[in-house]
Amino acid sequence: MNATLLFVQALNGLQFGILLFLIAAGLTLVFGVMDFINLAHGVQYMVGAYLGATLAAWTGSFWLGLLLTLPATLGFGLLLEFLVFRHFYDRDHLSQVLATFGVILFLNEGVRVVFGTAPLQMPMPELLSGGVTVMDGLLYPTYRIAILAVGLATAGLLWFLVERTRAGMLVRAGASNAPMVSALGVDIRRLFMLVFGFGAMLAGFAGALATPILSVEPGMGDTPLILAFVVIVIGGIGSIRGAFLGALLVGLVETLGRGLMPDLMRLVMDPSAARQTGAALASMLVYIVMAAILTFRPAGLFPARR
Amino acid sequence: MRWRETAVPLAIFLALAAAPFLGFGQGHSLTLLARAMIFGMAAISLSLIVGGAGLISLGHAAMLGVGAYAVVVLDHARITEAWMVIPIAIAASAAFAAVTGAIAIRTSGVHFIMITLAFGQMAFFATSSLAIYGGDDGYTLYSRTELFGSRALEGRLFFHFTCLALLILCWGLVQALLLSRFGRVLRAISENETRARAVGFEPYRYRLVAYAIAGAIGGLAGVLLANGTEFVAPAYLTWQRSGDLLFMVILGGTAGPHGALMGALAFILIEEWLAHLTEHWRLIFGPLLILCVYFLRGGIAGLPRRG
After folding, report:
1. Which positions in chain B touch A95 (Cβ < 8 Å)?
2. Which of A226, B216, B219, B288 is deepest in the core (most CB within 10 A)?
3. Contact between chains at B289 and A99 (C-beta distance less than 8 A)
């Protein structure tokens, strides 16, 4: 592995991390504010991808599809909140885990019924289908750079919303003491609903954004969901900043690990064994990193102030 | 209510023992019953963590997976004697539980759920990348585990009663553990950790021991699972499987191992029934799960009390 390849892998890792952040941000907000553990957050990412693909096919434009995905996933999140989630806010985490698990079963199967099991392939939008020369003789896909840029912009916007607006202030207040916010006259149920819908929209946006580079298939949200959990555990539950840095760390570790591990192993064993152990170690690496971080900081790297 | 904790399981065990002679002796029915008993064992072990220690694990399928893969590794090395396979598999899953538990139990609440989930995924990916044992495609066993060199476990009826005997053993063990001093301390810790600490009990140690015991029983269930299907694949370790196990425990009720037992049997029967109705049975199963969690707060075991 040479420096160029390493650079490309690092870019891929950052871009994956950004997508993870969009998912993890909603998850950590919902948990931080409502103390609600939502396993179904991953299927909201999947629904976003399917809606994005469908809307793009309907309108004939990727961009219009992406834009329409925002209200569509927001509406979908609010519908789920109304039908299922709001009935479990007062229940223990165990009930929440199982109820949202039921939502996953239903939606994964529902998508299978509506769209079939075969993965959908989305064409790359014309405008961004080329590559950008980032280094001598190295062409990096424009679309992936666009994801990086859009993700960073969203992260900035989110930071602004949470830290600098009235709604964000209420969200932060809700995270540290929800009953008190409610006692001060804020309709906490409506705040919950808004945070929930917003989180669903972010996850759906990430899903739609990823359609041209990932295959859209039933169950596609399960792996990102678990990685998003790792992200918020590493970053500290309820903390947006923690989610951002955690997501970049997980994205880099996951991507670089897959690229580097087999080569590293080759230093100490023969090639075929190295490929196997390397692959096995690479897929476990994120979890090993998480375990190591938790051993020293059980509350995560950037625990939210309580 | 104490009588029900023993009367209900005894009735279930009797029914399971009689089932092969009451028209359920066909291949398919026996396979289904064996599956129900194996998951019954797994759910009982999980109930020790959930009901006993008050910790919600979303990675319990990994315990079964480690047990099943121990069978695979030994089978690959042509070791199929039960007196070798079973202790090694139990030791492996207990060790896996002890190591992952040592980290996970440092946390509690939601952190614990997510960390057990992450460790479960880690085990899943690790088995998927084991190319010599079939990787993603899984591994077909050369033969079932042998008992003193005999192929007794190949007999359907013998396997049925082996599962039943081990199920009773596990239920008795967990029940005895929960009634013992150890179990009472465990419950005291989950009810009020601060108070238990003040009285002088170190929660960490008790929880870790409970977690490792649950892992060991889960490993035993994994051995039976591998033997029942004569096939092991990473699909056994998916996190959805862990979710299923957790649902079995909640469906039955967390009051004790009898709840988990009822939950597992009900789960397998509902699953079988729905799968007969439609290929897309999860469309019904998902909402059913949500409704069960919403309405059945005490699980099946707590039902008559509400009436």
Report:
1. 250, 293-294
2. B219
3. yes
